[in-house]
Specification:
Layout lengths: L2 E4 L2 E4 L6 H7 L23 E5 L9 E8 L4 E8 L2 E2 L10 E3 L4 H15 L16 H9 L17 E2 L4 E3 L9 H8 L6 E4 L6 E4 L10 H7 L5 E3 L12 E6 L8 E7 L4 E7 L12 H5 L13 E2 L2 E2 L2 H12 L7 E6 L4 H14 L5 E4 L19 H7 L6 E2 H9 L5 E5 L6 H8 L3 E6 L4 H4 L3 E4 L8 E4 L5 E4 L12 H11 L9 H9 L11
Helix pairs in contact: 2-3, 4-5, 8-9, 8-13, 8-14
Length: about 525
C-alpha cells in the first residue's frame, strides 16, 4: 500500500486521499477549522498548512523569497522559506514527506493564522456555549499563547441573529469557515446559507425570504468549530465540561444513527444527543428529530407502577398481574412485542410466551410510519423493528391490526404488551378496553390507557440494549443514567412476571439473557406495523 511520512511516521493512504484525510484515518491531528471529512474542501482557514517535500524525482520544494527580521542587526535580511501547502487540499503521493508539528515554519504560520482569526473575535468565552469544545481555544493553547498586538477597536457585527426555529448566529464569533454553508447544500440539500462580504466584513447570512428550517438544522451548529452557531435548545443550559457521555443508538427511526448521549452526572439529567461517526449507518450526521429525541429520557415517562390507572407499589402491581394471569391458558393471551424496545426486552417476552406459557400468539406494535426524507430519515419511526422480528425466531410476530381483528372475534381475553405505542389510537382504546391488559412501558401511550396493570420500564438511556436497524445491523447502546423512579429494564419485569406465575424462563441476569439470545435462530420473515 502506498504511504507518506508525516513527521517521520509512516502513514498509508488510499487513492485520492489528501494529506489531512490520511492523517485523520490513523489518528494524527493536523489542526483545521474549515475541513470536515464529510464535506467538500474549501481550504479557506489555512490552519492546516504543512511543509511538503515531494517524492524523489518528482520535483523540488517550492521556496519563497522573504525578508526576515534580524534582532541582532536591527535589519530585515533577505532569505528563503518553503511554500506551505494546505493539507486538506494537497493530494498524497507515494514517498512524499510531510512536516507538521516538526516544522518551525509551520508553527510560525499556525500562530499567525490564529492571531488573524482572533483579531476581531470577542472575548466572551464565559458566556459562549462552545466553551470547552472550541477549536479557537484549543489551538490557541497549542499554537498561540501570545499577547494580542492589535490595540484598535474590533469590528462589530450582528449578534444573536435568529436563523430559524432552532439556530442562533453570532457573526462576531464567526471565522467564515463555510462548513455550515457547505453542509446545507451538500448534505441537507437545502442551500439557504451563504457568505457575504470579504475580509474582516465577512459573515454568513440566510437567503432573503427564507429561514434555516429543514430536517438537519441542528447539524449546522454541530459542524461549526467555534461558537458562531448555537442551538436554541441547548443554549445556556449546561457547561460541557460537567457533562459525561454514553454511546447510544438514536431512537428516532429505523436508520439507527450512532449517537453520543450527554448527561450531567451530578443531576443525572440528559442534555443533548450528538452524532457518532459510523460510515455504514449515518456517516457523521443526525437529523433534528433524532438530536432532540434525548428529551424522551425524561419527558412523558412512566416512573411508577399503576393498577387500574392508580399509582401502586411494585408488590401490589405484581400481585395484580398474578391474579389476572393465574390459570389463564396461553392460547387466550396475546403477546405484543415492541419495535422500540431492545432485543433483550423483546426476547424476554418471547421466552415468557413460548417457554413459560406455551403460546405463539405474537404481535408487533410501535409508532406509526412517517415520511422518508432521502437523507437519513426512513418511514419506519421505530428503532428496533428488525430486531423484534428476529428475536421472535421461527414464530414471526404478526402486524398489530391483526391483533385488533382477533380481539373482535373473541380469540383473546388477556394481553401482555411491551411498550405503549400503537398505530390507530382510537381503535386501540375501543377494541382493547374490555381485555385484561398488562403493559410494560417507559412512556405514556395508547396501550397504557387501556392497561389494567402498568409496570415502569427503563428508557434506552437507562439500560443497555441491542437494536437492529433497517439494514439488519445489530448495534449496542450503552446505559447513560441510572433507572429513574421505580423503573427497571423491561426484561427484568418479564422475569418477575414469570416468577409470579411460578415459571422459569432460563435467565435472571443480562449476561444469561444475552447468552440465550445469541443462540436463538433468526426469524425467516418480517412484519409491518
Amino acid at each position: 500500500m502506498p504511504s507518506i511520512k508525516i513527521d517521520g511516521r509512516e502513514v498509508p493512504f488510499e487513492p485520492g486521499d489528501t494529506i489531512i484525510k490520511a492523517a485523520h484515518r490513523v489518528g494524527i491531528d493536523i489542526p483545521h477549522y474549515c475541513w470536515h471529512p464529510g464535506l467538500s474542501v474549501a481550504a479557506n482557514c489555512r490552519m492546516c498548512l504543512v511543509e511538503v517535500v515531494p517524492p524523489p524525482g518528482k520535483g523540488n520544494v517550492m521556496r519563497l523569497d522573504v525578508l526576515q527580521w534580524d534582532a541582532a542587526t536591527g535589519k530585515y535580511i533577505p532569505t528563503k522559506k518553503p511554500k506551505l501547502q494546505p493539507a486538506c487540499q494537497w493530494s498524497c503521493d507515494d514517498g512524499m514527506q510531510v512536516f507538521s508539528e516538526s516544522s518551525p515554519h509551520v508553527s510560525e504560520a499556525r500562530k499567525a493564522v490564529q492571531e488573524l482569526l482572533l483579531l476581531n473575535h470577542p472575548v466572551d468565552c464565559p458566556i459562549c456555549d462552545q466553551a470547552g469544545e472550541c477549536r479557537l481555544q484549543d489551538y490557541w493553547l497549542q499554537h498561540g499563547r501570545y499577547r494580542k498586538r492589535m490595540t484598535d477597536e474590533i469590528i462589530h457585527k450582528p449578534k444573536a441573529v435568529s436563523f430559524g426555529p432552532t439556530i442562533v448566529y453570532d457573526a462576531e464569533r464567526c471565522i467564515v469557515c463555510t462548513r455550515c454553508v457547505r453542509f446545507v447544500e451538500e448534505v441537507a440539500k437545502d442551500p439557504v446559507l451563504e457568505k457575504r462580504e470579504r475580509g474582516n466584513l465577512g459573515e454568513i447570512f440566510v437567503a432573503p425570504g427564507r429561514t434555516l428550517d429543514n430536517n438537519y438544522t441542528l447539524m449546522t451548529e454541530h459542524v461549526c468549530p467555534v461558537g458562531a452557531l448555537t442551538a436554541k435548545d441547548f443554549r445556556f443550559k449546561a457547561r460541557v465540561w460537567f457533562l459525561r457521555t454514553a454511546r447510544t443508538i438514536c431512537q428516532g427511526c429505523a436508520t439507527g444513527c450512532n449517537a453520543y448521549l450527554d448527561y450531567d452526572p451530578r443531576t443525572m439529567k440528559v442534555y443533548r444527543h450528538r452524532p457518532r461517526e459510523n460510515a455504514q449507518v449515518n456517516q457523521y450526521w443526525m437529523c433534528d428529530k433524532g438530536m432532540l429525541s434525548y428529551r424522551e429520557a425524561h419527558e412523558g415517562r412512566i416512573l411508577q407502577a399503576q393498577v387500574g390507572g392508580t399509582p401502586a407499589s411494585r408488590k401490589e402491581a405484581l400481585d395484580e398481574v398474578k391474579a389476572i394471569l393465574s390459570g389463564v391458558k396461553g392460547d387466550r393471551i396475546a403477546f405484543v412485542l415492541s419495535a422500540r424496545h431492545s432485543n433483550e426486552d423483546n426476547f424476554a417476552l418471547v421466552s415468557l410466551a413460548k417457554e413459560a406459557l406455551g403460546s405463539g400468539n405474537l404481535y408487533l406494535s410501535g409508532r406509526a410510519a412517517g415520511e422518508a426524507d432521502g437523507v437519513l430519515m426512513v418511514e419506519d419511526r421505530n428503532s428496533n423493528t428488525a430486531g423484534a422480528i428476529q428475536v421472535a425466531s421461527t414464530t414471526p410476530p404478526r402486524p398489530f391490526p391483526e391483533l385488533l381483528e382477533a380481539v373482535t372475534k373473541g380469540h383473546y381475553s388477556h394481553v401482555i404488551a411491551l411498550g405503549a405505542d400503537a398505530p390507530g389510537d382510537g381503535k386501540v382504546l375501543s377494541e382493547l378496553e374490555p381485555l385484561k391488559t398488562v403493559v410494560i412501558a417507559a412512556h405514556e401511550g395508547p396501550l397504557v390507557k387501556v392497561a389494567k396493570v402498568v409496570l415502569p420500564a427503563c428508557s434506552w438511556a437507562e439500560a443497555e440494549g441491542t437494536y437492529v436497524n433497517i439494514k439488519g445491523l445489530a448495534q449496542r447502546s450503552e446505559q447513560a443514567i441510572p433507572p429513574q423512579g421505580e423503573s427497571q429494564p423491561g426484561w427484568q419485569w418479564v422475569v418477575e412476571i414469570a416468577q409470579a406465575l411460578g415459571h422459569k424462563i432460563g435467565f435472571g441476569k443480562l449476561s444469561e439473557l444475552r447468552k440465550s439470545l445469541s443462540g436463538a435462530p433468526a426469524a425467516a420473515t418480517s412484519a409491518s406495523l
